[in-house]
């Protein structure tokens, strides 16, 4: 047992590397706080754009969603950071990571929002328009709130997945939590930092997993 704790749960090593892990955790949280709202907003706008009457615009939106969902986020990040400079656009590490997460995440949020908007009965829209509301007002005050409530478990679940994907930032030398743990492991020659990072991830995501379960149960019972 002593050998196990010395190898995997060495608190002396944990105290030594904790500043590095804390720095990585802060960067992970910052990435999530920037990328998630942007991805949600862009996803909603893309879903609303699919309501357009123009078949050309709808075709562009469908192509965007399909392409962004098909490209792995890590590949997308590498293309943005290393490929765009050849086109005259160079982004910093943080900006490139946020853009990759936003583009990939928005495509999934768009499909979730689209399903939510389609779940609202057509009569709700017609009733809203009959009261004198414009298309934008009816979507803002009637359709979007109802549609969002209908797919809330999926939105929360996708948010958790997007936060997990912040680990791809290590590909462009950003020291998020996982990258910091790997560096700490290399400095100490001990897996304790990786175990600590895994525990931190679990403590971060477990409440959201439970929230998703409760929302799903509540939706099923409604």
TrEMBL record:
<keyword id="KW-1003">Cell membrane</keyword>
<protein>
    <submittedName>
        <fullName>Polar amino acid transport system permease protein</fullName>
    </submittedName>
</protein>
<dbReference type="GO" id="GO:0043190">
    <property type="term" value="C:ATP-binding cassette (ABC) transporter complex"/>
</dbReference>
<keyword id="KW-1133">Transmembrane helix</keyword>
<dbReference type="InterPro" id="IPR000515">
    <property type="entry name" value="MetI-like"/>
</dbReference>
<dbReference type="InterPro" id="IPR043429">
    <property type="entry name" value="ArtM/GltK/GlnP/TcyL/YhdX-like"/>
</dbReference>
<keyword id="KW-0472">Membrane</keyword>
<dbReference type="Pfam" id="PF00528">
    <property type="entry name" value="BPD_transp_1"/>
</dbReference>
<keyword id="KW-0812">Transmembrane</keyword>
<dbReference type="GO" id="GO:0006865">
    <property type="term" value="P:amino acid transport"/>
</dbReference>
<dbReference type="InterPro" id="IPR035906">
    <property type="entry name" value="MetI-like_sf"/>
</dbReference>
<keyword id="KW-0029">Amino-acid transport</keyword>
<comment type="function">
    <text>Part of the binding-protein-dependent transport system for glutamine; probably responsible for the translocation of the substrate across the membrane.</text>
</comment>
<feature type="transmembrane region" description="Helical">
    <location>
        <begin position="194"/>
        <end position="212"/>
    </location>
</feature>
<feature type="transmembrane region" description="Helical">
    <location>
        <begin position="25"/>
        <end position="49"/>
    </location>
</feature>
<keyword id="KW-0813">Transport</keyword>
<dbReference type="GO" id="GO:0022857">
    <property type="term" value="F:transmembrane transporter activity"/>
</dbReference>
<feature type="transmembrane region" description="Helical">
    <location>
        <begin position="61"/>
        <end position="84"/>
    </location>
</feature>
<dbReference type="InterPro" id="IPR010065">
    <property type="entry name" value="AA_ABC_transptr_permease_3TM"/>
</dbReference>
<feature type="domain" description="ABC transmembrane type-1">
    <location>
        <begin position="25"/>
        <end position="212"/>
    </location>
</feature>
<comment type="similarity">
    <text>Belongs to the binding-protein-dependent transport system permease family. HisMQ subfamily.</text>
</comment>
